[in-house]
Design brief:
This protein has about 230 residues and is of the alpha+beta class. The protein has nine helices and nine strands. Bound molecules: zinc ion (ZN). Zinc ion (ZN) binds next to α3.
Length: about 230
């Protein structure tokens, strides 16, 4: 469990450093499998870097020195053309800045690329109405995670306990029997944490755990999209 300490412990990691030799000298290609373009050439310094949540977890694992063990293969950030970036709906400014930095310094930030639309839809303090059972269940699960962290001597991720409590004790939505009102930010953080752990469990070959965390996150996300 030592790698968990390295991944989620107190030392906050900001960037993953690529080997500069692995970065194209002049021109790259759009590497997005979901982009319909014919591998559009991307000149040095330009394009968009798409960083998935799974790539963040994999880079953290590599950085923590576990890539030689069970973490040899995993998703990395991908360089995409404008068409691909727009199709994915990512924040173009952030993705372009990330690409530029990657070309110049080989550094990729250890956080997923933000979505363009989501950013606009989320004013501070917005609340969401979700099923009480989902809220209680995920709240319980998050509390358990915190206990696990502690058991192994790690610092539990900041805000985890408070978010767990907020989910467990969420107030009933007026005029409903089985719905509660929760801050959108709490749900977002819970999803991120569950997806992060799900990716990690998958890479470690713990597929049942990965599915469980993944399903909790999926339930929460679908509540957000409603
Ligand atoms: Zn493309």
């Amino acid at each position: 469990m030592d790698f968990l300490r390295k991944l989620f412990g107190s030392s906050e990691v900001e960037f993953y450093q690529y080997d500069m030799n692995s970065i194209p000298k002049t021109t790259g290609l759009c590497s997005d499998n979901e982009c319909p373009c014919p591998e559009t050439p991307i000149p040095k310094g330009s394009g968009y870097l798409y960083i998935s949540q799974e790539a963040v977890v994999f880079m953290k694992a590599k950085k923590a020195g576990r890539a030689g063990g069970g973490f040899v293969f995993g998703p990395m950030p991908i360089l995409v053309c404008e068409q691909g970036a727009k199709l994915r709906g990512i924040d173009l400014k952030v993705a372009a800045d990330d690409a530029k930095r990657w070309w110049e310094t080989g550094k990729a930030p250890l956080r997923p690329t933000p979505m363009a639309s989501r950013k606009r839809q989320e004013p501070e303090g917005e609340t969401v109405t979700i099923d009480m059972s989902t809220s209680r269940q995920v709240g319980q699960r998050l509390s358990g995670l915190s206990a696990e962290y502690k058991k192994f001597g790690f610092e539990s991720p900041s805000s985890l306990l408070a978010d767990a409590k907020a989910l467990r004790n969420a107030k009933k939505a007026p005029g409903t029997r089985d719905k509660v009102v929760v801050d959108r930010a709490v749900i977002e953080r819970a999803c991120d944490k569950l997806e992060e752990l799900s990716s990690l469990a998958k890479m470690a070959g713990q597929f049942e755990t990965a599915n469980e965390f993944g399903n909790h996150a999926k339930n929460l996300r679908s509540a957000l999209d409603r």
